[in-house]
Here is the input.
Amino acid sequence: MGAIPEANYKIITPEKHESLIKENGIKDGVWKLQAEAVIIGSGAGGAVVAATLAKAGWKVVLIEEGGYFTPAKFTGDEFLSQARLYRDAGFIIAEEQTLSILQGRTVGGSTTVNWQTSLYPPDYVTNEWDSRFGWKGYGRQEMDAYISEVHERIGVHEVPPNLINANNNTLMKGGKALGLHPEVLKNNNRGCIGLGRCGLGCPINAKQSAFLTWIPDAIEAGATVISNMRAQYVQDGDIKTVVAEFTPDPYEKAPSNVLEKVVIEAPVVIVSAGAIEGPALLQRSGLGNDWVGRNLKVHPTSTNFAIFDETINMFSGPPQSAVIKDGHNQDNTGYGYWLEVAPFRPTLASSLIPFYGQRQFDAMKKYPNMSAGIVLVRDGADGEANASVKWSLGRRKVYFEITPTDGKNLLKGLKALAEVQVAAGAKAIIFPFPDVEDPIPVDKNSKFDWILDKSIEPGKIAIGSAHPHGSIQAAKSPDLGAVDLDFQLFGHKNIFVMDASVYPTGLSVNPQITTMSVNLRAARALAQRKAEVLGNK
Here is the structure.
């Protein structure tokens, strides 16, 4: 088992509140702090930024809404893990129930519970960033130094052949049989043995999540990291104020004496709270323009559950070790779909199978023989995604409706996925259409053109996401985005957004590596301007 970094024992968790209160003479449970930069969120963006600024000599305070968990508290219990490690217990539900989103809420953010997939966008994506929004120098080759640094820090390497499990092998086998081009993915770990627990927290610290890498880097460089503190609002000014309130662990009794509130004053605020909570925080703080919360990208995702004669046990082994990108670039538009698999455990699988009552029970009896293939779509093919985040009546709300071309690409992907699954030997497929009420038997003669005629209207197809991004997009002018090309909020000095929220288009790849690399570059540029930004040049 990988050791817990010594620095992590300095993370301020609820168990340390009582001693802090006594040592600092804190009154009424309110701790007041000063810093040069306060960072809100500890995921792929916030953790990298905290480490970068702290190493450059900045006085950094990082706050994280979720708790701090290590293998001692990671468990195979899905209900417990989802409640503790995920936002909204694993199901952020869009208004009108048009979309469900998985997103981490813990120290390390989604890097603690993601499936390790390590990719960077193709050039046609970054070229669009340049031509439409003014992003310069983000092509794969131009970003190589940052990407390589990220790869080294979090242990990125190709999945070895002995760890490509039966679930992923459906893509390898079926794709090759059809003349497609399945690829072996890169994962981020050191010492993975294929336990298949990534989504519940790695029990041996093999996955190199942010809480094992960038967070201890930040602490060793002098940063203060506080868990279980939710940012309520940010007040602008020459010196900004961030007010955060205590958020208890839903499955553990809080100590009797805790810090109820933390008030942090700093000249620089960096919002790294993710593409769902970040815009909600800015909106309730009265900060930013009309682009805050708009054009949320989610990589709309649907699942075919293929049923095989042989045992698959989709949860066993590294979650994602194969990908098929043949559908990536439909008609040379830069938009399309790609195929992966998901390691759904029984709780999540049963929630995604679109059956009820006895049909659902009968389907779940075949769970050991199921492979969950997923289609992910690069959303925005119609110019802008029809999705947003809004803070309204004291509540964060997510709105989503798939656009026509994105929906068409999703259906194309489901057809291609079914063909791959049949070529891999599937005997039946459960499709994500509520009006298809039974598994459909399939064989080599099955045709799937009927999928292209299915409706994409709300309620007619099950859509999920694990990749919310781009809701506070960066652009060359406030007419095109919420933050500038340094990721500073238009209209506000020294309030930055540095996480997956800044992308102006859909990524077309799993976001972790892009988020770390892009924000490493942004944080390093900010760090080099320390004297100018802090006004002490």
